[in-house]
Specification:
There is one protein chain. The protein is an alpha/beta fold. The protein has one domain (about 15-205): Rossmann fold (3-Layer(aba) Sandwich), CATH 3.40.50. The protein contains eight helices and seven strands, in the order αβαβαββαβααβααβ. It has helices at about 15-20, 35-40, 55-60, 100-110, 130-135, 160-165, 185-190, 195, and strands at about 25-30, 45-50, 65-70, 85-90, 115-125, 170-180, 200-205. It starts with 13 loop residues before the first helix and ends with a strand.
Length: about 210
């Protein structure tokens, strides 16, 4: 993950929404764990393990997580420690940065998810109203962070995010939205999440 990213603040932020979805007493593999943000805000009964590309982020995450390793996620290497399978796999603001996100997602689901485990992903919502407004004015300028982060290789709507999850054999059981500012509006007007959400958050299980 990119070291420019910081912990999302607020009840409706992506990080806090994912932390609530994780729940309690779970073993969690945080793929693209950054500095271990989720471990800092999730219920302390959970045991977090992480993998990330950034050496500096891995060092920071080690202070929070049980075990963390450094790896180029595009290479889909096996983890260096034998921890078996996990209750929850998390891909928070990661997959859009990878060359073949569907392959990476499928790799971790196949090798590290328990039979009754869950997968939680978050992706930038390219259909967000701010991006739509820019397109209407003929603008599609990349930024340092956010939806149009210049390091993003892929862009998603709720529809294509669902397709990504389904490509890994996952059945979507919950759809949420990450938005620090407009989160309360989305909470009451859930049908507007496709327009107002900054991040798409999906939870899935292995489709039987």
């Amino acid at each position: 993950m990119n070291t420019r990213y910081t912990l999302g603040r607020g009840y409706f932020s992506t990080h806090h929404t994912i932390a609530r979805l994780i729940g309690k007493n779970k073993t969690v593999l945080d793929v693209g764990c950054n500095k271990g943000y989720l471990g800092k805000i999730a219920d302390p009964s959970n045991a977090f393990y992480g993998v990330d590309y950034s050496a500096s982020d891995v060092d920071r995450a080690k202070k929070v997580y049980t075990k963390v390793c450094r790896s180029d996620l595009n290479e889909m290497k096996k983890l260096p420690w034998n921890m078996g399978r996990f209750d929850v796999l998390v891909f928070a603001d990661l997959l859009e940065h990878l060359i073949y996100p569907e392959r990476v997602l499928a790799f971790y689901v196949e090798n590290y998810l328990k039979k009754n485990g869950r997968v939680i992903i978050s992706l930038p919502n390219i259909a967000n109203w701010t991006v739509r407004g820019k397109l209407l004015s003929g603008s599609f300028d990349y930024t340092e962070t956010g939806i149009l982060d210049k390091t993003h290789l892929h862009f998603y709507t709720y529809k294509t995010a669902r397709m990504l999850m389904e490509s890994a054999g996952l059945e979507i059981v919950q759809e949420e939205a990450g938005s620090t500012v407009l989160g309360p509006v989305i909470f009451y007007l859930h049908q507007l999440r496709g327009l107002l959400a900054s991040s798409i958050i999906l939870e899935g299980i292995i489709h039987i």
